[in-house]
Amino acid sequence: MFFAARELRVFAAYAAPMWVYACIIWGLGLIGQAAAASPSPIEQAYSTRAGSELKQFGYELFATKSPPAQGREPIGAVHGDYVLGVGDELAVTLRGQINSTRRYRVDGDGRLLIDELRPLRADGRTLDEFRRELAIAISAAHLDVETFVSVTEIRQIGVLVLGAVGRPGRQELISQATVFDALIVAGGVTRSGSLRRIKLLRGATERVVDVYELVQTGGGGTTERLRDGDRILVPPLGPTVAVAGPVKHPGIFELPAGVDRASVAAMRDLAGGLIRPATQQAMRLGLKADGGELAEEVRDSTAPLLGDGDILMLAPLREDRQGVVRLEGHVLRPGPRSIRDNRTLIDLVGERDLRPGHYRPFAALASTDRATGMTTHTAIDLAGVLDGRTDRRLAEGDTLIIFSTADVDFLTSDAVLRLLRGDRSLPEGACRGLVVLARTIAGSPDGPFARGPQAQAAAELTGSRQPCPPIFDENPDLLAFALQQSVLVRSGVTRPGFFPVAGKAGTQAIARSTGQARDKPATRAVAAIEPEGSLGRDDIMDRAEPVFELIGHVRFPGVRRLAGGTTLRAALEQGRALRDGVYPLMGVIERVNRRSLSQTLIAFSPQEVVRGRADRVLEDGDRVHLIARTHIRLLTAHPPAHDSLPPSVEELGLDPLIASLLNEHAVQVRGAVRQPGAYPVADRTAVESVITEAGGVSASGDPASVELTFGSGATRRETIDLTKADGQRAFVGIGDAVRVNPTFARMEPRTVNIVGEVRRPGRYDVLRGERLSALIARAGGLTDDAYPAGAFFSRESERRRKKEEFNNHARAIDAAIVRLRQKGEPIRDEQESHARQLAAELRGIDPPGRIVVEADPIVLRKRPELDILLEADDQIVIPKRPLTVVVSGELMAPAALQFVSGKTADDYIHEGGGTTRDADTGRSFLVLPDGRAEPLSISSWNHTVTAVPPGAMIVIPRDVRPYGFLELAKDIGGIVSQLALTAASITVISR
Fold it and tell me: Where is the Capsule biosynthesis GfcC-like C-terminal domain (predicted)?
C-alpha cells in the first residue's frame, strides 16, 4: 500500500501509528546499546583494582537489537492452563448437526454470551475448564455436536515498570507476558539497577524477583505471568563482589536480596567454577575506611567473608618453587617464604604470624622426600617454638601447618567418633581427611584406632556435628596423624575430647591449656608422648579441677581454671579480654547441671558486667559466649520463621539454641537511626545504649522525640526526650520497640531544573515554600534574549495525572467497543480500526505535564499571587524570543512558519497548505506561548481576527465523526482535542 506524500506526513504526525513508536524505541535501544558498550563506573572501578577487565553479570540479557513488540502480538497455540480474562476473544467452532464458527469476546462482567445458551463465566477460569463447561452446555442444547474452542486474540494488560530501567512508565503487554517481558519492553535494567532485588507488587503483596535465577536455572520469578495493574520496581544496584582469576566467567556479581556477605565457594560457583579443577588460593581485596586496600587470604571457603566492594582473587595453590618453605593453616599470611631468611622453625613462625584462636600445643611439619616423593609429618610443640625452647632446622620444601581450636574440635566430632566406634559409613560430602581415616581403620582392624583404649573410651563421648575444616580437605593425612598424637581429656573440661600434643612438653601444654595447674598432676598419670608415638592406655587425662571456657569474640578464647568465687567480671578481666567489636548488650552463659544433665542459658550484658553493675559467680563447666556486632546484625537480619533458624546460624558458627535465644531477646529499633533492626538485650537496657548499637540517631532524626512501645506486661506507649535527664534514664526490655521520629525536612529531597535563557542554568536545591521568582533570581535572572511569555513549566505529578487520564480514555474506548459487540450492534472494520488506533495513541503518548505559569519577574513582583510554589523534579525552560508560528494537526503541510506581525490564523493555515478532509475546523484552537489554549473561529463568514503572537501554535484537530458510533461520542471531541494539545506541547519541547 502506497501513500501520497501529503497523506504520509499527516499520517506520521498525528495518527501516531505504533510502528512509528516502535522505530523510535528501536532507535533509542541502539543508542542505549552504544552507551552500554562503554564500561559503567562500577566496571571501571573494579577493573582498575583487579588489573583485568570485569563486566557486570546478567545485563547482557537486555542487550537486544530488535525493537520490542508493541500492540497486539500474533499468538500461537494457547495452552489449556491459560487463565481467561476480560477482553480475550475466543473462536467457538461447532461440528455435527450444527456447523458454525463464531468469535466471542469476554465482556466487562467476565462472561461469554453465546447464542441460545445461558451466559457462561469465563473470567478467572482456565481455557480447559471453560472448554469442558461449554461442551456440556452445547451438548445439553444440541445433540451430536462437537465443540472446539481456541483463543484468537489475547487481552492487553497494563503494567507499571519503575526504577532503573531504560524507559520507565506504563507498559502495554499481552496477558501471557512475564516479568522478563515487561523489563525488555521497558528498555531493560540499566547497569545502575539491581538484578536480584526487583520487586513485583501485586495489590498489597510484594515479591522479590531475582534475574540470576533465570540465567542459572531458566526459571524463577522472572518467568511468572503478569496481571493487569501489576507494578515492577527495579531498585538501585545492591552490594557487589567481583571475582577474578582462572574461573569460567570472571565478572562483577550482585549479592542476593537480604545477603550482605558471601563465601568464596558461593562466589566461585556464581563465576561458573574453576577453569582447571584444583585447589586454589583465595585472596580477598577489601577497602579500608580510609580508602586504602587490604589484602588477606581466605582459608575457609564456606565462611561469609566477602562483602560489598570486595574482589575475590583466585590463584592456583600449588606453586613449584625452589628455595622456599611454607607456612600454612591458621596464620595471617599463609604461603611460601624464602628459606634463606627462614632456616629454622623459630625464624619461620612467631606470635605476629598467628591468627586469633590458634592451637599452641601442637603443629605439624610436612616434609617431602625428593627421591621418593613421599610426604611425612612430624609433631611440633608450637608453644615451645614460640617461647624459644624448641627449634628445628628446615629443609627446602618443608611446610609448617598451624591448627586452630576449631580444627582440633573436629577430632571429637560425631563423624570421627562414629569411625572410631566401628561405623564404616561416611557422611554425605565427607572431606578427604575422613576418607583417609576410614581407610586407615579398615586397613588395620586390630590397630589402635580400631581397638585401642582411647577408641574404646571414645564410645562415652558425644561429638558435635560441625563440618570438616578445610585443613583436613587440603591435607587429608593430617586427620589421622593428629589423632595419633592426641591424648583424651575426659573430665574437668567444658568439652571433653582428643587434644593433639607434641612430646612430653606438649602434654604439659595441653594440661595448662585445659586449666591444669603446673604444680598439680592429673588424676591419672600422663605418659610422655614422643612425636612418633601411637595411642596408648596411659594417654587419658581425668581432671577434677573446676574450669570455665571463654568462646567467641574474646582475645584469647579457651579453657580457664576456675578459682573459688571467680566472677564473670573477673573472667572478662574487667573488659580487657574482650575484642574490639564485641556486642555489648547481650552475651550468654551456657551452664549444665551435672546431676540432671539439663542445660540452662543465662543472658547477661557484657557492658553492665564490665561496669560492675550486673556481675555473677561462675560455676564449674560454664561456657561464656561473646558475640561480635557483625554477627548480631547478620543473625537478626534473618529472623526465624516458626521454629526454623536463619540460614546464617551455621555460617556464623553459633549454637542454634543460643541463636534462638538472641532472637527471642530482641528489641526492635526503627525510624531515623542509621541501622534499624532487631537488637538483643539481656534484660532492661537503657534506650540510649540500644540506639547507640543501631548506629545512633541519623541526621534526619529528632532525639527529643523518641517513641517507646512496651510489649511486655501492660502494653503501653510513651515518648521521651533523649536530650534531657529523664530520657537518658529510660529503659526498654525484651519485646519492646523503639522508634526515633524524624524531623520535618525543610529542604525538598530532590532538585528542580531551570534551563534556557537564564544566566546560571542548572539544577537547584529548593526549600519548602520556595517560589518560581526566587529560583529565577538564584539562577542570575533572565538574559536579554529571554522570552518569559513562552516559559515551559512541567511537573511530574501533572504528567502522571495526565498519563493516567489518557489511559482511562483508552480503556473506555476499548470497553465501548466490547459493549457494542456484546449487544450485537453492527460495527464496520474501518470504524473499529479508527477507534483502536485512537486508543493506541492515547496509551502511547507521554504527556510532558505542562502547567501554565507566569515567569516574568516584573509581573511576579506586581502580582505575587501568580508566583507558583515549586515542587521536587519541576522542569522550567525559558526560551529565546521566537520568530516563528507553528501550524500542526490536520493540515496538508504542517510546518514552522515565519512570524509576521498582523498575520491572522487563516493566513498561517493557508501557508500550511490548508486543512485536510479529516480536519474539524470548528474545534481549532490557538496555543499561546505560555501554554494557554484559545478557540479559533475559522469560517468564510467569520470576520473575528485573533492575534497570533510569535511562538504560538495553531492546532487543527481531526474530525470526530469516525468515532460517532461509540457510546462516549459526546466526549470524543474533548479527548481528541486534549490529544492534539499534548502533541503540540511535545512539539514545543522538541524545539
Answer: 897-972
- Pairing verdict, β 156-163 and 100-105: unpaired
CB 726 within 8 A of CB 718: no
Q: Is the pLDDT of residue 832 over 80?
A: no
User: Which residue range is the domain that position 149 belongs to?
Assistant: 89-153
Rg of the chain on CA atoms, in Å: 39
Over residues 467-487, mean pLDDT:
89
Helix (H) or strand (E) holding 103: strand 100-105
Q: Are 783 and 759 in contact (CB under 8 A)?
A: yes
Cβ density class 251-274: b for 16+ within 10 Å, e for less:
bbbbbbeebbbbbbebbbebbeeb
Q: Which residues are CB-neighbours of 268 under 8 A, at least 6 positions away?
A: 243, 247, 274, 280, 301, 312, 314
Lookup: cell for 521 = 598432676
Residue 31 has a pLDDT of 40
144: domain CATH number is 3.30.1950.10
Quote the pTM value: 0.39
In a domain, 583, yes or no: no
Domain assignment of residue 149, yes or no: yes
Q: Cβ of 802: how many Cβ atoms within 10 Å?
A: 19
Give the integer Cα–Cα distance in Å for 123 and 87.
9
Burial class (CB in 10 A: 0-12, 13-18, 19+), 653: middle
- What's 974's domain CATH number? 3.10.560.10
Q: Determine the Cα–Cα distance for residues 542 and 524; give it in Å rounded to an integer.
A: 6
The dihedral built from the CA positions of residue 858, 860, 861 and 863, taken in this order, carries a sign that is positive
pLDDT digits (tens, 9 = 90+) for 240-286: 999 988 888 899 999 998 889 999 989 988 988 888 776 777 888 88
Confidence grade of residue 292 (pLDDT, cut at 50, 70, 90) = confident
Q: DSSP H helical segments within 51-157, as ranges?
A: 127-141
pLDDT at 394 over 60: yes
CA distance 783 to 205: 52
Q: Catalogue the E-assigned strands of 553-593.
A: 558-561, 587-593
Residue 839, SS3 per DSSP: helix
* Domain end among 153, 168, 187: 153
Of the chain, the end-to-end C-alpha distance in Å amounts to 32
Inter-residue contact 581 to 552 (CB < 8 Å): no
| 205-209 and 558-561 beta bridge pairing | unpaired
Question: 813 by DSSP, 3-state: which?
Answer: helix
**Residue for cell digits 502580582?**
863
Cell numbers at 742, concatenated: 524524624
Provide the pairing of β-strand 762-767 with 884-889: unpaired
Contact 875, 794 (CB under 8 A): yes
The reply to whether 227 falls in a domain is no
Phi/psi at 732 (5° precision):
-130, 160
Q: Residue 573 corresponds to which cell in the numbers above?
A: 578481666
Q: How many CB atoms lie within 10 A of CB 144?
A: 9
Specify whether the CB–CB gap between 120 and 112 falls below 8 A. yes
Residue 94 lies in a domain: yes
Domains contained in the chain, number: 3
- CA dihedral for 652, 305, 553, 384, sign (positive or negative): positive
SS (H, E, C) 934-979: EECCCCCCCCCCCCCCCCCEEEECECCHHHCCCCCHHHHHHHHHHH
Tell me how crowded residue 778 is: count the other CB atoms within 10 A of its CB: 15
- Is 856:789 a contact under the CB 8 Å cutoff? yes
Cell of residue 597, nine digits: 544433665
**Which of 788, 791, 787, 838 lies closest to 811, judged by CA?**
838
Task: Please say whether the beta carbons of 605 and 683 come within 8 A.
Answer: yes
Q: Which of 138, 153, 168 is the last residue of a domain?
A: 153
Q: How far is CA 630 from the centre of its chain?
A: 19
Dihedral sign for Cα atoms in the order 699, 702, 703, 708 = negative
Residue where the block lists cell 544496584: 237
Residues forming beta bridges with residue 707, ordered by sequence position = 719, 739
